[in-house]
Amino acid sequence: MTPVPEFVLATRAKIGHDLMWIPGVTAVITRGDEVLLVRRADNGAWTPVTGITDPGEEPAVTAAREATEETGVRIRVDRLAATSVHPEVVYDNGDRAAYLDLTFACTWVEGDAYVADDESSDVRWWPLSSLPAMSDLMLARIEAATSGEREARFVAPAGQGDHEPPPVLAPPAPVLGVDACPAGWVGVVIDPQRRASVFVAPDITGLVDLVRERHDVSVVAVDIPIGLPDAGGRQADAEARRALVGKASSVFSTPVRAAVEAATYEEARAANLAATGGRTSVSAQAYALREKVLQVDAWVRGRPGTRVIEVHPEVSFARMAGAPLLARKKDADGVRARREALAAHGIVAPAWFRGAGFGEDDLLDACAVAWTAVRHALGVSESYPDVPEVFSDGIPAAIWV
After folding, report:
1. Same-domain pairing of 211 and 313
2. Which domain holds residue 313?
3. Number of other CB atoms surrounding residue 41 within 10 Å
4. 43-79: per-residue pLDDT in tens?
């Protein structure tokens, strides 16, 4: 038999018969519809060409080397066909070994096959349709190498098939996600290559104009109420809250139009109470967004020339992650969870730096809104409610995700 590799002997001198982990290769060599097999001299079994990888040697180089050393032929190594762990082997002298096998699909190039060393007693081309008796292990390696598959086969971790990765979507044309911020508005454009770019402007019209200098956006998604009720609340707000168990308070009730247009908070509260029969006032948070709500309302009424939808970022993040993100968006854990949710869907949120005119939470919210804009551009978005409400302003009112 061919001598045991020197590195194996050196290791054995230190560890004795203990289990040794050894990398090896299997070269499945085909010529047309035939496969080259060797008959092992030690046990008479038919197998493809196999061998141990020398330290520092590339496995594909091992496959080519072993083919020549064992059979005298020259081959082309085409692809990695499978990875597997060979069951532990106990040799006659008591040595124990386990092998990591890398099976390569190979093609014969030249040379007559013959017994080129004393590891084999026979070398022969066999029709793939009429192979000799072989172990299931070797048959599986031949099947993987001759399957025509481009990806290598491997044993997946337990339970991996239980969860499909989220779809990574790219818009057919650039889309814009917008969130309110201290500087006015921060927008994130996602282009067809899923690249994200950031824009800031003091008003919504200026932001969209700025973006249009570089991008012809097909959808603009905004985190602000669009479509103001005349009396009572909006179905969109109620359904969004139901989708955010544990986070429902992040969706405020949209005031009626008369309240939004009121000049003071006291007048807004009175107007909302009057319109709802005394049932609902206006929260300070809702009224604080009055100027931005009116900005978007005027912009939408002015026919902006693109599709405009309302999006709530917490609803978008909940859809991305499969559940509401309960960590506060201004905390480190909340920032990390939101960046991870975006990254899982193929959106790498841009870096944030202090003094940019917006907070990191504003930036990430704009990214989440842009993600829904991508979905809307592809026709896979959904709305709360399923059929948008339409009030006296004639603007469909719905929160999209």
Report:
1. yes
2. 175-254+288-400
3. 15
4. 999 999 999 999 999 999 999 999 999 999 999 999 9
CA distance 150 to 174: 33
Q: Is the pLDDT of residue 1 over 70?
A: no
CA gap 178, 190 in Å, rounded: 11
pLDDT digits (tens, 9 = 90+) for 8-32: 999 999 999 999 999 999 999 999 9
Query: What is residue 72's predicted lDDT score, i.e. its pLDDT?
Result: 97
DSSP string, 176-222: EEEEEETTEEEEEEE-TT--EEEEEESSHHHHHHHHHTT---SEEEE
For the cut 80, the answer to whether the pLDDT of residue 325 exceeds it is yes
Q: At what angle do helices 313-321 and 332-344 cross, to 10 degrees?
A: 70
Closest C-alpha to 12, from 69, 134, 94: 94
Same domain? 140 vs 183: no
Question: How many beta carbons lie within 10 A of that of residue 133, not counting itself?
Answer: 7
| Beta strand 175-181 pairing with 184-190 | antiparallel
In degrees, rounded to 5, the angle at the alpha carbon of residue 16 between the alpha carbons of residues 10 and 17 is 120
